[in-house]
Structures are given as C-alpha cells and as structure tokens.
Specification:
D-tyrosyl-trna(Tyr) Deacylase, Chain: A, 39% strand, 8 strands, globular, alpha/beta, two-stranded antiparallel sheet, single chain, 145 residues
Length: 145
C-alpha cells in the first residue's frame, strides 16, 4: 500500500457539493492499494501511521503522535498514487489494485485506524472528490508497506 500523509489543522472531502468527510487537527491520509497488497500490508501501515511522531510537543519539536495528541484522521482513497511516469507523458495506473480489491483494503485500513481509538472519517471510494486541507507545518510524508 502507498500512503501520502499530511499533518493538517483541518481537512474535508466533498462529493457533489456535499461534505462526506472532515477532520479538525490530525491527519489527511491519501491511500492507494497496489496489486499484490494483502491484509498484512494494511495492518502494517495502520499500526505505524498513528504512532508517527510528527506533531509538536510543548517545546515545538515533532515529538508526539496522533495517538498522543488525540487527533483524528480523514482517509481518502487515491488510485493516482500508483502512477507510473517512467514512459511518455501520460501516467499509467496498472499497478493499482483492481477497484473491488482496492475498496476492500481501503475500508479495512480505515477500520484498523478506528480500532486503535482514532476518530476516522472517509471520502467516497471511486467518486470524483474535492479535497480541501490546511497542511500544518507543512508536514507531508510518503509511506509504503
């Protein structure tokens, strides 16, 4: 799995002019299931991300995790994280998991985060979404399982 994690002061996702998910301080997690990903890959990322020490402590250093701060997560599926730009000018996305498998792993990821006590909201899988965010820091981290 691939994840692009952004520390945010707020984020929201809108579909057809209706907000379907939002968060205050916490993380916006753009997630993509790749061909060959397993439930073990999902669990690995879902276990690590909430423990990343990327939030400021009282001294202003990045020393606290999402769990430490009591923050929330907005999880949005984004198959374009699978982009292959090695040939030509049009990205290829054939390394992304098939839609049914991708959706299943995406939902499992959100459920795994929630099971750790993280308040989780999501986008709408497969929809044309508008994502708004205020990146705090900015802090943006790329991860793969």
């Amino acid at each position: 799995m691939r994840a692009l994690i952004q520390r945010v002061s707020r984020a929201s996702v809108t579909v057809d002019n209706a907000v379907v998910g939002q968060t205050g301080p916490g993380l916006l997690i753009l997630i993509c299931a790749m061909q060959g990903d397993t439930e073990a890959d999902v669990r690995k990322l879902a276990a690590k991300i909430p423990k990343l020490r990327i939030f400021r402590d009282e001294g202003g250093k990045m020393n606290q995790s999402l769990i430490d701060t009591g923050g929330a997560a907005l999880v949005v599926s984004q198959f374009t994280l699978a982009a292959d730009t090695s040939r030509g000018n049009r990205p290829g996305f054939s390394s992304a998991a098939a839609p049914d498998e991708g959706e299943s792993l995406y939902r499992m990821f959100a459920d795994e985060l929630a099971a750790q006590g993280i308040p989780v909201e999501t986008g709408q899988f497969g929809a044309d979404m508008a994502v708004e965010l205020v990146n705090d820091g900015p802090v943006t981290i790329w991860m793969e399982s």
